[in-house]
């Protein structure tokens, strides 16, 4: 992995001003995203994440990135 690439936590991503503008234009709030992630973790049988934990790290054991994010 390239050390210059920084993986944001979900909370850091949701706090990003550009992400907030896109969410606002789509009429989505941060709690909607958090709820979707909680439901996805429950379906996968994964434990709840701790605050600040990167969602990407939770799916790191799965070599298929699309599968770890619920895409077919």
Helices and strands, in order, run as HHHHH
Low-pLDDT segments:
53-72
DSSP strand tally: 0
Helical stretch tally:
5
- Helix percent reads 40-55%
Round the Cα radius of gyration to an integer and report it: 13 Å
- For the termini, the CA-CA separation is 25 Å
Largest sheet: none
Shape: flat
Percentage of residues in DSSP E strands:
under 5%
The class by helix and strand makeup works out as mainly alpha
Oligomeric grouping of the chains: single chain
Region (Disordered): 39-72
3D structure, described in words:
- This protein has a domain at 8-44.
- The protein is mainly α and 72 residues long.
- The protein contains 5 helices and no strands.
Looking at this protein, list some descriptive labels:
0% strand, 72 residues, disordered C terminus, mainly alpha
Secondary-structure topology with pairs:
Layout: H1 10-15, H2 17-25, H3 30-44, H4 55-58, H5 65-68
Region (Disordered): 39-72
How would you summarize this macromolecular structure in one to three sentences?
This protein has 72 residues and is mainly alpha-helical. The protein is built from five helices and no strands.
């Amino acid at each position: 992995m390239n050390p210059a690439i920084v993986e944001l936590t979900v909370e850091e991503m949701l706090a990003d001003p550009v992400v907030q503008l896109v969410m606002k234009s789509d009429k989505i709030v941060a709690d909607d995203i958090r709820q979707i992630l909680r439901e996805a973790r429950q379906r996968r049988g994964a434990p709840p994440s701790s605050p600040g934990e990167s969602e990407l790290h939770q799916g790191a054991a799965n070599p298929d990135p699309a599968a770890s994010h619920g895409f077919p």
